[in-house]
Amino acid sequence: MTTLENCLFCKIVAGTIPAQLVFQDEDITAFYDVNPQAPVHVLIIANTHTASHLETDDPTIYAQVLAGAKKVAQQLTLTDYRLVINNGAGAGQSVFHLHVHLMAGRPFAWPAG
Ligand code: DGP
Questions:
Q1: Ligand 1 in contact with 16 (CB < 6 A)?
Q2: Residue 92, ligand 1, Cβ within 6 A
């Protein structure tokens, strides 16, 4: 597992910064977002550090976070939810450890705006 000492989400994986976990296994960690944008807002990350969607070439990471999002939905018995990946500061990425947002519990407009 690759970790970065100054990465907030690597610290959550390591347990040195507290988070409300939904689940964790050897590959991924899922935890509630501290600034929720929906009644249910969970972040799913690979335990291995990778900065962003664009900077990742490992298809295993993609599979892990998307399968992890499905696991969260099933664990929380959600059937309607939105998955979001922000890539780059201009698109709203503020933490540079690739993560999938899973949001649910309210209507979502499309186009998102
Ligand atoms: P993004 O903007 O796409 O990089 O999403 C980062 C999310 O991370 C944002 O919605 C807020 C959340 N976040 C930031 N710091 C913490 C933290 O210390 N704990 C938790 N649980 N979430 C955090």
A1: no
A2: yes
Residues annotated as catalytic (active site), given as ranges:
99
The pLDDT tens digits for 34-81 are 999 999 999 999 999 999 999 999 999 999 999 999 999 999 999 999
94 Cβ below 6 A of ligand 1: yes
Q: What gap in Å lies between CA 42 and CA 100, rounded to an integer?
A: 8
- Answer whether residue 111 is part of any domain: no
Convert the pLDDT of each residue in 86-100 to its tens digit: 999 999 999 999 999
Tell which residue, 3, 32, 4, 1, has the closest CA to residue 18. Answer: 32
What is the reported pTM? 0.96
Q: Could you tell me the residue range of the domain that residue 33 belongs to? A: 4-104
- Quote the number of domains for the chain: 1
